[in-house]
Specification:
Structural class of chain B: alpha+beta
Oligomer: heterodimer
Shape of chain B: globular
CATH architecture of the largest domain in chain A: Roll
Distance between the termini of chain A: 55 Å
Strand content of chain A: 15-25%
Number of helices of chain A: 5
Number of strands of chain A: 5
Radius of gyration of chain A: 16 Å
CATH topology of the largest domain in chain A: Ubiquitin-like (UB roll)
Largest sheet of chain B: 5 strands, antiparallel
Strand content of chain B: 15-25%
Order of helices and strands of chain A: EEHEEEHHHH
Structural class of chain A: alpha+beta
Strand order of the largest sheet of chain B: 4-5-10-6-7
Number of domains of chain A: 2
Number of helices of chain B: 12
Helix content of chain B: 25-40%
Bound molecules: flavin-adenine dinucleotide, FE2/S2 (inorganic) cluster
Number of strands of chain B: 14
Strand order of the largest sheet of chain A: 2-1-5-3-4
CATH superfamily of the largest domain in chain A: Beta-grasp domain
Shape of chain A: globular
Radius of gyration of chain B: 19 Å
Largest sheet of chain A: 5 strands, mixed
Largest interface: A-B, 35 and 31 residues
């Protein structure tokens, strides 16, 4: 009975998907392998690094610490869902690009998803709040300063939009 | 790391979940938020044959007030409790502890009750249960029982709950007038090396009750009665804090590990205890 797949219906970046998955598979693998959304990265696969962060019904979550079948009925946004159809970057993407908030960029999708949730709930966070909220995302390259700069740039860009 | 294979169950009601637990017993694990169980499985520290996912049981996702006590159901996630005005009002110590649990992306999935059932010796919420005299409500297919927090935790990762029992909810005790949770960890969001949950009741500038529950210092969270006694009847001034702190370092016998030596832990236990009193006294928001 272990090998049985079970049906899963979820919405990813606005598109409905109905697929069959093995219950043991985590959401990140299903996004990457079954839906070819390889922007969600896997670093540690046990919840520590934050590279796999996606939005589940608007809230940031580790896609490696969720069985795909737990996403039944959920709306999911991944890094691929941020830019407009014409390729115009989301303001947080544009800001991080401008501030050069990455080196190898392996961690970047996770930081972007965490930052989007942060700025939605708190549009003008202090530097301390930014560091606190992003403490669950690890970066092996930048030393974090350029990432904090990127978030602060995003605050400015998004503030001037309003 | 991929999870080992298992048979997945998604009960829609408490009764259905209890029947599954009765049938599969030791071979089954309850899956709530998965923020501890799934890493355990990824690291092959556990290999349950059956997973009983309680995430679709709507009746478990409620916060209510019962007999003047805040009751948190098994599917209430940390983030939801953190944002709940009822929790802030009725269980301010729980509210103070929640931001210390992991990171935001962990708290949006993890549950309050899951943290308590998991019983990690370094976790914040079991200490909150001890400090507030919480009651743990358990159900199996054949019986219901309520256990005081003081009798619930049995050791690191172990409780007196049986394998066929579901923790349906936890009722937190009456708040004090002042609260704080203070911890020392290696990195922000990590499990604490040492921490304390502190609840005081102060009337006419005199401490009438005190609860100090430490985590990360023993195989379960522990209250230190001698330290609490050193505060009761005092103004919680510098002298009282000094004797409280001496009691803490006297009584606690933490183990050393890769993160901190025993002597360091004992010292820091005294430090966080003193800080928690200052924080509780100065946190006006925490006053009931
Ligand atoms: C990176 C990271 C950092 C973390 N940092 C902290 C931290 O600083 N402090 C902290 O306290 N925790 C921390 N955690 C753990 C997190 O808080 C977990 O969410 C929590 O411990 C368990 O809640 P859960 O709902 O996710 O439970 P699950 O993972 O679903 O379950 C955990 C265990 O409890 C059992 N269980 C769960 N619910 C019930 C129930 N209702 N009845 C009976 N048994 C049940 C399960 O069978 C399992 O054995 C961290 C986790 C990660 C990944
Ligand atoms: S891959 Fe999910 S947290 Fe590291
Ligand atoms: S840019 Fe390389 S890990 Fe962050």
């Amino acid at each position: 009975m272990n090998d049985l797949t079970i049906p899963l219906t979820m919405q990813v970046n606005g598109t409905d998907h109905s697929i069959d998955v093995e219950p043991r598979r985590h959401l990140a693998d299903v996004l990457r392998e079954d839906l070819a959304l390889t922007g969600t990265h896997l670093g540690c696969e046990h919840g520590v690094c934050g590279a796999c962060t996606v939005l589940i019904d608007g809230e940031p979550a580790r896609a490696c610490l969720m069985l795909a079948v737990q996403a039944e009925g959920s709306e999911i946004v991944t890094i691929e869902g941020l830019a407009d159809a014409d390729g115009t970057m989301h303001p947080v993407q544009a800001a991080m690009h401008q501030a050069m908030s990455f080196q190898c960029a392996f961690c970047t999708p996770g930081f972007l998803m965490s930052t989007i949730a942060l700025l939605r709930d708190n549009p003008s966070p202090t530097t301390e709040e930014i560091r606190e909220e992003l403490s669950g995302n690890l970066c092996r390259c930048t030393g974090y300063q350029s990432i904090v700069d990127g978030v602060e740039t995003a605050v400015e860009l998004m503030g001037s939009d309003r | 790391m991929k999870f080992p294979p298992f048979t997945y169950h998604r009960p829609r009601s408490i009764e259905e979940a209890l029947d599954l637990l009765a049938e599969h017993g030791d071979d089954a694990k309850v899956l709530a938020g998965g923020q501890s169980l799934l890493p355990v499985m990824a690291l092959r520290l556990g290999r349950p044959e059956h997973i009983v996912d309680i995430g679709s049981i709507v009746e478990l996702a409620t916060i209510d007030v019962d007999d003047d006590r805040l009751r948190v159901g098994a599917m209430v996630r940390h983030a939801e409790a953190e944002g709940s005005p009822r929790v802030a009002e009725r269980a301010p110590l729980l509210r103070a502890a929640l931001p210390h649990v992991g990171h935001r992306a962990i708290r949006s999935r993890g549950t309050v009750v899951g943290s308590i059932a998991h019983a990690d010796a370094a976790a914040e919420l079991p200490a909150v249960c001890l400090a507030t005299n919480a009651e743990i409500e358990l159900r199996s297919a054949t019986q219901s029982r309520t256990i005081n927090a003081a009798d619930f935790f049995d050791g690191h990762f172990t409780t007196v709950a049986h394998s066929d029992e579901l923790v349906t909810s936890v009722r937190f005790g009456t708040p004090g007038t002042h609260h704080a949770v203070i911890e020392q960890s290696r990195r922000h969001g990590d499990y604490a090396m040492v921490g304390v949950a502190c609840q005081l009741t102060i009337a006419d500038a005199i401490v009438t009750s005190a609860a100090l529950a430490f985590f990360g210092v023993s195989s379960t969270a522990v209250r230190v009665a001698e330290a609490e006694a050193a505060l009761i009847g005092t103004d919680a001034g510098p002298e009282a804090i000094a004797s409280m702190r001496a009691a803490v370092t006297d009584v606690l016998e933490p183990d050393g590990d890769i993160h901190a030596t025993a002597a360091y832990r004992r010292h820091v236990a005294g430090v966080v205890a003193a800080r928690s009193i200052h924080a509780a006294l100065h946190n006006e928001e925490a006053a009931a």
